[in-house]
Amino acid sequence: MGPAGALPQPGHVSLVIFDLNGGQIIRLVDETKQSCTHWVVWDGRTASGFMVASGTYFYGIEVNTTNGSEKYREYKKIM
């Protein structure tokens, strides 16, 4: 399973997985999405395809609406 979210209006979405030190593991999403509910699944691999160790990671999501009126940023822990 992975993060889910509903976009109230279309926008550019960036979703990144980080380790405890803030190092980027993988960028899962970096594109414009339409307004609706979206699911993203992370298979526990790095951008290079290697499995990460078990532990605590974080995801960061940033959304900029296509008309530029709103910006949203959130970071949450995943285990």
Task: Give a verbal description of the structure.
- The chain is an all-beta fold and 79 residues long.
- Helices cover 0% and strands 52% of the residues.
- It is built from no helices and six strands.
- The strands form two sheets. A four-stranded antiparallel β-sheet has the order 3-2-5-6, with no helix packed on it. Strands 1-4 form a two-stranded antiparallel ribbon.
- The protein is elongated.
- The N and C termini lie close together (11 Å).
- The model has no long low-confidence stretch (mean pLDDT 88).
Which descriptors would you attach to this protein?
79 residues, four-stranded antiparallel sheet, two-stranded antiparallel ribbon, 6 strands, 0% helix
Summarize the structure.
The chain has about 80 residues and is mainly beta. It has strands spanning about 5, 10-20, 25-35, 35-40, 55-65, 70-79. The chain has a 4-stranded antiparallel β-sheet with strand order 3-2-5-6, with no helix packed on it. A two-stranded antiparallel sheet has the order 1-4.
Given the structure, what is the number of helices? 0
In helices, the fraction of residues equals under 10%
From the structure provided, what is the oligomeric state, counting identical versus distinct chains? single chain
| SSE-based structural type | mainly beta
Kindly estimate the percentage of residues that lie in beta strands according to DSSP. over 45%
Strand order of the biggest β-sheet = 3-2-5-6
